[in-house]
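Shapes recur. One chain:

:::
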Amino acid sequence: MKKFITILFLGFFGLALSAQEKTAKIEFKTLEIDYGTIEKGADGVRTFEFTNTGDAPLIISNVKSSCGCTVPEWPKTAIMPGDNGQIKVKYDTNRVNPIRKTITVTSNAETPTIALKIKGEVIDPSKSSVLTRKDKSVLEQ
């Protein structure tokens, strides 16, 4: 009887060790979006596309940006294995300066935290023409 219980215990223990947990995996098409050079007030919305390549539903619990000038929007429902999703990021293009921001995605995926990045530069065309005039001599103006 002891042998039977020992063998049964070892069998269950072996099965427990060999059983793998199902996990979600998030795979982005790109981890960085380059806005390039855009004008003040231009459309600041960009989209990060991803796929759940795991074998369990993917739940994105939070998406947070490094400052208030960038507002993320993400799916609040589970993304099933093999399905696609999007994280939209809106940058405030009324701020004239270089863009270097990080968007942190937190989920139940195998890699629970992923950093997405946006970069570029917002210019004010009306101000750049003033700079051009300043470069001219007094006689040319």
Remarks:
- The helical segments are 2-18, 125-135.
- Residues 94 and 135 are 26 Å apart (CA to CA).
- The beta strands are 26-28, 32-39, 45-52, 60-65, 70-73, 84-91, 98-107, 113-123.
